[in-house]
Amino acid sequence: MVRYSVLASGSTGNAILIQTDTTSILVDAGLSGKQIEKAMHEIGVSADCLDGIVITHEHQDHVKGAGILSRRYKIPVFCNQKTWDGMEHIVGEIKTGYQEIFCTGDRMEIGNLALESFAISHDAKDPVGYCVFAGNTKISVATDMGYVNAKMKQRIIDSDALIIEANHDVEMLRIGPYPWHLKQRILSDHGHLSNETAAEILTEVITANTQCVHLAHLSAENNMPVLAHMTVKTILEQEQFKVGQEFDLEITYPDKPTKLRSVRRR
Ligand SMILES: [Zn+2]
Ligand SMILES: [Zn+2]
C-alpha cells in the first residue's frame, strides 16, 4: 500500500508526497519550507517523517524549499549532477552526506520505495520524470515536458497512479497575455504539455491497472481546471475509456493539497 498527495502544483510551486508505512519522500520541493510544512500538516503528515527529496529539475518552482527542508530535518536530496549544478545557488548549502547524486536512468532505493528516473524534454539542464515503486505498485510523475516520445511513454505506461502535466489550452495561450517569446517557449519541444497532448499521451499509457490520473502544472493564465478536465475527459471517452469508472481523473491545485490517497496494485 502506498499513499500520495500532490501538495501543490503549478508555476508557483510543485511538491508531491509519496509514502509507505515506513518511508516518505517528496518529489520536488518548490514552495517555501513553511508552505510545504503547512500543506503536509493539512493532510495529517509531519515533515519530520521525510526520508528524501527527489528533484526533477532545477527550476525555482521545483526546488525552492529543498535546501531549507534538508537542513531543518536532515533530509537527503537526490538529483543528477547537472540539476545539482543548476540549483545549488537557489537551495543554498546542503552538507556532504545529504547530497545524493544519481545518473539519469539509475534505479535507486529510499527505504522501501524504489525509484527510476527518466529523461524528459524541458528547458532545464538535465530534467527527469520519476517512476516510484512500492512493491509492484507504480506511481509516475511526469510534468514540465515539451513533448513525450515513445521511450518516455514506455516508462510511464501501466502506472497505478499517474501525475501528468496538462499545462495549457493552446487557444487560451495563443490569444492570452503572454509575450510572443514566452508563448513560443511554452509551445516548443522544451516547454509544457497542452491539455490535448496530455490526453493523447494518456490514451497510450492508461491500462487496466491505472486507478487515478492527476492533471498537474495547470497554468493560471492559459488554462482553467474545468477546461483541462473536460478536454482530457472528452478525448479519453472518444477513445472508449470509461473515465470515473475504470479510473478517476482529478485536478491538482497550486494552493492546496489533493487528498491523501491510497493505491495498491489490484
Ligand atoms: Zn515547473
Ligand atoms: Zn520547469
Automatic annotation (TrEMBL):
Q: What are the alphabetically sorted keywords of the record?
A: Hydrolase
Q: Which SUPFAM superfamilies match?
A: Metallo-hydrolase/oxidoreductase (SSF56281)
Domain of life of the native organism: Bacteria
Q: Does the keyword Iron apply?
A: no
Extent of the signal sequence: none
GO molecular function term, any single one: hydrolase activity
Q: Which residues belong to any copy of the Metallo-beta-lactamase domain?
A: 12-190
Pfam families named among the record's database cross-references? Lactamase_B_2
Q: What is this protein called?
A: Metallohydrolase
Q: Which organism does this record belong to?
A: Desulfuribacillus stibiiarsenatis
